[in-house]
């Protein structure tokens, strides 16, 4: 009988590719290798603008030589120079989706090789409110492995309005918060119902945020705080495991970036 590699032993291999099979889920011949997938959500604020350059450096290099997939929030929101910083640290091997979009530029998604963007979509959640918030948008991309197109998943990113469910707790802002939540739910479920794995990052501006999809299958890499990374499995054709999580000090404001190291494969 061919021996099966344990999940723990397989994960211990680390690196860019997690080789072999996982007990109970098939054999190596029936699946791709496991691919390391570091994902980060990072809100880059405005309290200490001089710290931003180092913050982008820390985010880019948070997983050593591996290129993280990053959901940014609050980019070029009342400040300047951040597009150039992202271009510098996330170079030509990255697709910087929405970074210079006419309207949804505040929440770009940086996708590095071996992952490639095959489609993108943005949707307006609500307009701006003077002195309170800029217009809010919802961004998403579908990505595939450049050499193994069966390994495909959706990445969603957004930034909810502040002070509706945190801070000032203003009930007059909750309609706007729920407009975003309705889009988040609809888009998570649309990809899920198409059989696609969904990974999302966001500043939810709600410490007790539940799930985006209202589905029990949705899981949380970070289950507390306002900065979240969640995932929702699809039809099982792409599998995902969570290896570890950690925070990344950015020293710009009260936000620290959050990193989840996943492994994914097609079966």
From TrEMBL:
Top-level lineage group: Bacteria
Ordered alphabetically, the record's keywords are: Signal
Q: Where is the signal peptide?
A: 1-30
Q: What is this protein called?
A: Endonuclease/exonuclease/phosphatase family protein
Q: Which organism is it from?
A: Kribbella sp. HUAS MG21
């Amino acid at each position: 009988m061919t021996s099966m590699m344990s999940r723990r032993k397989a994960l211990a291999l680390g690196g860019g590719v997690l080789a072999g099979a996982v007990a109970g889920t098939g054999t190596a011949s029936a699946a791709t290798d496991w691919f390391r997938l570091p994902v980060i959500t990072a809100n880059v604020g405005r309290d200490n603008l001089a710290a931003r350059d180092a913050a982008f450096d820390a985010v880019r290099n948070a997983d050593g030589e591996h290129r993280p997939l990053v959901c940014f929030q609050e980019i070029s929101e009342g400040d300047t120079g951040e597009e150039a910083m992202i271009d510098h640290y996330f170079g030509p091997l990255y697709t910087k989706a929405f970074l210079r979009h006419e309207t949804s530029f505040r929440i770009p998604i940086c996708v590095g090789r071996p992952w490639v963007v095959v489609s993108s979509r943005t949707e307006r959640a609500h307009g701006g409110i003077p002195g309170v918030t800029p217009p809010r948008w919802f961004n998403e991309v579908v990505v595939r492995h450049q050499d193994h197109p069966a390994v495909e998943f959706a990445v969603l990113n957004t930034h909810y309005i502040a002070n509706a469910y945190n801070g000032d707790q203003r009930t007059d802002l909750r309609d706007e918060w729920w407009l975003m939540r309705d889009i988040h739910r609809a888009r998570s479920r649309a990809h899920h119902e198409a059989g696609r794995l969904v990974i999302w990052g966001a500043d939810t501006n709600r410490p007790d945020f539940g799930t985006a999809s209202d589905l029990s299958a949705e899981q949380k890499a970070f289950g507390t705080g306002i900065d979240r990374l969640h995932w929702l499995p699809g039809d099982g054709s792409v599998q995902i495991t969570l290896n570890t999580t950690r925070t990344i000090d950015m020293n710009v404001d009260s936000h620290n970036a959050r990193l989840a190291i996943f492994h994914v494969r097609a079966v």
